[in-house]
Amino acid sequence: MKRTNILKELNKINPVITEETNFQTILGIISSKSNSNNKFNFDKLDKNKIFDLESIKKICIDFRLRFLDHKYFKNSIPKEAFLEISKLESDHNTILSDFKIMAPSKLFRLKNTDDPLLFVPLGNNYFYLVHKWGNDLHPYRKLLMWPLKSLWNMIAFLLVVSLGLTYITPTSIFSKVDSWSVFWMIYFFMFKAIASIVIFYAFALGKNFNKAIWNSKYNKSI
Fold first, then answer.
1. Is 212:57 a contact under the CB 8 Å cutoff?
2. Are 101 and 48 in contact (CB under 8 A)?
3. Burial class of residue 59 in the structure, from the number of CB atoms within 10 Å of its CB (0-12 exposed, 13-18 middle, 19+ buried)
4. How far is CA 170 from CA 174, 181, 193, 197, in A?
5. Residue 147's Cα: distance from chain center in Å?
6. Count of beta carbons in the 10 Å neighbourhood of residue 135
7. For residue 76, which of 25, 90, 107, 167 sits 20 to 30 Å off, Cα-Cα?
8. Across the strands, what pairs with 132?
């Protein structure tokens, strides 16, 4: 089974900037009142490596990734990434700072107790991809993380799971009469039981939905 290349997924949803007019517009946005300490020669930038914050956020939510300052990254950054940084600094005659990394939570050293991408801010919510390393994500990661995107996703998931479990549960265990009212009664209690387990698990382990944690440096996001 082919694994998911997170960079390809990011490119799919990133605003198209291949056209020169659109590219120049984005460069204008980046350069106007930039809040970044990094100074670039925009003529030397690879337009295919420029990403806006909304695209990064969507990928983080879909695949349950985090986008945090590099200081929270607990794994070692490969030599190739440092070479790319040095090349950028040399090409643009600058010293880069405020690096960000997109990666699964387990690769970060989070406060309160597979596939990293290193970015540097350009300003005004635009980021430049410096380097990608590691393995691609599990091919089913997006599907597996779908219930964790939001509360409504989780409720929909629990309703479907409860319906499946109710369907395979013999009604004779609960009643001698085989009727739809018995089926829906079992379904209701099945949903309550599964939802209770999920809520207990979420509170016990401090879990939260993807939208709440994608840029949070805390392990147990409220």
1. no
2. no
3. buried
4. 8, 14, 17, 22
5. 13
6. 9
7. 90
8. 117
pLDDT means per 10 residues, the chain with 222 residues, are: 68 60 60 65 82 88 87 82 90 87 74 68 85 74 85 93 90 74 89 91 75 72 47
What's the rounded Cα separation, in Å, for the pair 62 and 102? 13
Measured distance CA(220)–CA(113) in Å, rounded: 9
pLDDT score, position 62? 87
DSSP string, the chain: -PPB-HHHHHHHHSPP--SHHHHHHHHHHHHTT---S----GGGS-GGGEEEHHHHHHHHHHHTEEEEEGGGB-SPPPHHHHHHHHHHHHHHTS-----EEEEEGGGB--B-----EEEEEEETTEEEEEEE-SPPBPTTHHHHTGGGS-HHHHHHHHHHHHHHHHHHS-GGGT-SS--HHHHHHHHHHHHHHHHHHHHHHHHHHT---HHHHTT--BSS--
Please state, in angstroms and rounded to a whole number, the distance separating the CA atoms of residues 204 and 150.
Answer: 18
Q: Check residue 112 and give its pLDDT.
A: 43
Q: What is the pLDDT of residues 166-180, one digit of tens each?
A: 988 887 777 777 778
Q: Where are the domains of the chain?
A: 6-132, 145-213
